[in-house]
Amino acid sequence: MPDRPDPRPRVAARRRPPEPPANRPSVVQATVYRDGRRVSSPDTLAETFRRLREHPDGMAWIGLHRPTEAELHSLAAEFDLHELAVEDAMEAHQRPKLERYGDTLFVVLRAARYLDAQEEVDFGELHVFVGPDFLITVRHGAAPDLSAVRHRMEENPDLLRLGPEAVLYAILDAVVDGYAPVVAGVQNDIDEIETEVFGGDPAVSRRIYELSREMVEFQRATRPLVGMLHGLMAGFAKYGTDEELQRYLRDVADHVTHTSERVDGFRQALTEILTVNATLVTQQQNAEMRALAEAGFEQNEEIKKISSWAAILFAPTLVGTIYGMNFDTMPELQWTFGYPFAILLMAVVCTSLYFIFKRRDWL
Fold it and tell me: How does DSSP classify residue 206?
């Protein structure tokens, strides 16, 4: 971070900003600090600007939640914020990044929190402007809760005395610490999913898919932070960052690296679980198909047996029917051995059919 320049020339060079809206629904809290202590808690942005001018060696910390365009333009005019950074802060839905515009840093962070009731991960977006004597946070979403960060910094004046860079560290630390409950919740979800997969739960595929998508978002939130923090650390010597603050930022970088590796492991594990689940589902479907095929085979065997006996019984029925017509011209009617011949014919036909079907394993 840059050395703090003499604030007096900068105050004189500021342009008079337009008055922000009277109703300030997006201003969460605006505070002016001096030497690590709170000296003022203005109610409006305009009053915050005036109080900061009264304390040229002070620092303003302004927290906003989904601010209006007029409020952001008011801040941009007062603190010379770059128009591209202001545009990003208004539109939101930005990737995590760190950009430098002169003596102002613009940082985009993706916070996360685990919702136990829904068993899902909720992501928020935080934009931070860091200047020589100001820090502005623009929050989109419920996470993170920066009131705890402000309380922590006010309880540690020595750290707060280091200026906006120290507040940026505290915000980074809070965002990264907020990942820990998410990691624990996701790990528990993965353990439950593994049990459901081998238990044959049909709804587990959808749960795996949804959690995989959340891990993609989580990966997009954590992976860029590693490069961002290493970029900050690379500029320690150039911008004269306090040694104590350097140690704090290195600690945050270690935590981010560990979290990023865990998230990468979760995504890989979910991919493997999805593959195992697909294999198990395929095996189950194959078993069902095999059972259906076996049932069809048994049914065919029964049909063959029934058809064979029907054919055997049809032969004597056919002979008996012919002889039952009683025509006078039938030669067998006047033959002494006609009746035994008919019985013998029926027996020969039935026996022949029986042995034929038996040889073909139809009986």
Answer: H
225-261 tens-digit pLDDT: 888 888 888 777 776 777 888 888 889 999 999 999 9
Closest among 90, 81, 39 to 60, alpha carbons compared = 39
Residues 6+ apart with CB under 8 A from 120: 114, 210, 214
Residues with Cβ within 8 Å of residue 312, at least 6 apart in sequence: 350, 353, 354, 357
pTM: 0.71
Burial readout 230-266 (b: 16 or more C-beta within 10 A, e: otherwise): eebeeebeeeebbeebeebbeebbebbeebbebbeeb
- Is the predicted pLDDT of residue 25 greater than 70, yes or no? no
- pLDDT for 193-202, tens place per residue? 888 888 877 7
Question: How far is residue 352's CA from residue 359's CA, in Å, rounded to a whole number?
Answer: 11
Residue 343 vs residues 6, 156, 261, 333: alpha-carbon distances, Å: 129, 116, 90, 14
Decide the pairing of beta strands 59-65 and 37-40: unpaired
Residue 220: closest CA among 184, 259, 171, 253 = 259
- pLDDT value at residue 19: 45
Phi, psi of 157 (to 5 degrees): -60, -30
Residue 60: name the closest of 46, 241, 152, 68 by CA: 46
Kindly indicate the confidence band of residue 205, based on its pLDDT and cuts at 50, 70 and 90.
Answer: confident
Q: How many Å apart are CA 38 and CA 33, to the nearest integer?
A: 4
Angle between helices 338-359 and 243-323 (to 10 degrees): 160
Residue 151, burial from CB neighbour count under 10 angstroms (0-12, 13-18, 19+): exposed
167: which 2 tokens?
A: 């507040």
Tell how far CA 137 is from the center of its chain: 25
Nearest to 324 by CA among 316, 335, 313: 316
